[in-house]
Amino acid sequence: MRALGAGGMGSVFEARHVGTGRRVAVKVMSDALATNDEMLVRFQREARALGAIETQHIVQVFDLGVDRSSGHPYMVMELLTGTDLDAHIKRTGPLPPDLALRVVAQACLGLEKAHAAGIVHRDIKPANLFLAERDGGELVVKLLDFGIARMRKHDPEAVTTGELTQTGATIGSPQYMSPEQAKGLRSLDHRSDIWSLGVVLYKALCGKTPHHVHKVLGQLIVAICTEPAPPLQDLAPWVPPEIAAIAHKALALDPDQRYASAGDMLAAIQPFLQGGTGLRKELFVPLPERERLHAAPRLPMGGRAPMPSTTAPPLATSGPLRDLEPGSPRARTRTATMVFAGIVMIAISAVTLLTFRFTSSDPPRTEAPTSAAAAPAASPSSKPAEPTAPASHRVPEPAPAQPEAITKAMTSAAPPAVSPSSQGSPSKSLRTEKSPKPNESADMTVRPQF
Between vectors from CA 42 to CA 38 and to CA 45, what angle results, nearest 5°? Predict the structure, then answer.
C-alpha cells in the first residue's frame, strides 16, 4: 500500500482489491483511537453516512470492517485523483467569480442529497471539497470526511459540536463553524452546512474567510456568533454585487434568514451560470490581473462597517479603504474634486487681491512746475489749483519770506496749530496750499483744507 495522507481519525492508503484488481483508498483508524469507543462509533457513523448517499458529488464507500491482524477499523472508498479546493486557493489565490460559483453549485448538489438522507455534514470547508479528475480533463466536486456528521434520522443522540475531542479541540473547523455550531446547540440542522458553504464561497472569491482577523479561538467564536460577515467586496472589489449577495445571505447570523436548503442556494446561483455547472482543469488558473483591477458596483450593506486592516490602523474615512487606492474610480473623483477646489480658492484670492489694490492705491500725482516760464499765467480772479495728492503723502515745504500784509492775513486766517501726532492720520491731517511766490498777486488768500 502507498500512503496518501493522514487526518484526525487515521491515515489513508492507496491499495488494490485482490479480487477485482481495482485501485481503492483504504482509511485506517489510528492506534490511539482504535480503543476509544466514542471514536469508533464516529468512524462507523462516517461509513454509514457515506454508504447511505448515492451521488457522484460524495465519495463512495465500498466496505467497512476490522483488520484481523491489527484490530484497527477500516473503510474502503473510491480512489480519487486530483486536489482539494483549499490547496488550489493556496496555490493560485481567489477564483474567478464564475468558477467559484460552479464549484459551490456542485457542492450544493452533494449537500442536497446528504440533507435529504437526514445527514448534516458539520465540517464543510475547502479542504473537504475535492476536485476529482475524470477522463477528458473534466472535474467533479466531491464532499469528503463525514467523520463528525450528524445523522438525525438514525442517530439523534450523536455527539454535538459543543463537546470536545480527546485533544481539547472543538469538533469541526472553527473558521467555518456556524453560530449555532460554535455555541454547541443541539437544535443545529442542515442550515449550519449552508453557513459553512457560504464561508467556502466567501474564501473562494476573495482568498480569506470572513473572520480571518481573529487569531484567538475565543475571539473567533465571539465574532462568529455576534458579528455579521464583513463586506466581501472590501477584499474583492471586482466581485459583482449580485454574487456577493449570495455569500452574505448564506452567512446570515439568523438561520431563518439564510437559504432554506442547499437546493434554494443552488437556484440562486444558477442564473449566473449560463454555461452550466461543468468544471474542467483548464478553468483553474489564477484570476487575471485585469479582473482584479475592475471595481464592481458596491453591494449595499445597511451601514455595516468595512473590514479592519490587518497591516495598518484603519483610516478615518467613511468609505472602504480599498476604494481610496491610487487609480480607483473613487480616488480619481476625490483628486479631481480637490484640484477644482484649489483652482476656485486661487481665483477668489486673486480677485480679492486685485480689488484691494485698486481701492487702496494712490491717484496719480501732478508735479508742480519747476520754473516760472513753465508755470501758466494766473489771472487775479482764478484760484490756485488744489493739490491732488493726500496731505499724508506730502512733505511740507518751508514758506518763503512774505510781505507784511500777507503775513497779517495769514495770522488772522490761520487755523489753530495741529499737533504732529495728528499728521499721520489721513482723515484728520491738515492740508495747506502752497504759499504764493513773491511775483504772484498779493491779495491771494490761503484756505485751510480739511
Answer: 140
